[in-house]
Write a structure and sequence with these properties.
alpha/beta; Rossmann fold; five-stranded parallel β-sheet; 5 strands; 32% helix
Length: 139
């Protein structure tokens, strides 16, 4: 396996296309990190029940440029896909960046956050390059 496919990632499961997302600005700041990727929602919205059924299949088809070490959700409707991703990558943390989620390993309300340092520090602790706190200097 190449180093590219072993790169630790923060996978941001977007609830809407980035261009239409209310939290676009802070999400774009997170996506500027070398280790962050966006996963846009399906074109047709899925009910939570149907999302649970298709989530495993979606994850099998998903081609990411590395291995998720953190999977961020913005709303509870994204939990089925996040759970399937964590099932496939059990070392990954669940992050809640919007609506609070009781089971999350890390929570940050991006709508209220003026500083993303807590997210960047958490990324660095997980081996994900933030591009902000010095991880890129080791390359």
């Amino acid at each position: 396996m190449s180093l590219l496919h072993e790169q630790p990632l923060l996978a941001l499961l977007l609830p809407a296309r980035l261009e239409a997302f209310a939290l676009r600005e802070p999400v774009e700041r997170l996506l500027a990190a070398p280790g962050a990727v966006a996963v846009e929602p399906p074109r047709v919205p899925l009910s939570v029940a149907f999302a649970r059924i298709v989530a495993r299949r979606q994850v099998k088809r998903m081609r990411l440029p590395g291995v998720p070490h953190a999977i961020a959700v913005f709303a509870p409707q994204q939990i089925p896909l996040a759970a399937a991703m964590i099932e496939r990558n059990p070392e990954a943390e669940l992050w809640a960046l919007g609506d609070p989620y009781g089971e999350a390993d890390f929570t940050l309300d991006l709508a209220a956050a003026t500083d993303l340092r807590a997210a960047w520090e958490r990324m660095e602790r997980l081996g994900i390059e933030s591009g902000r706190l010095g991880s890129e200097r080791g390359l």
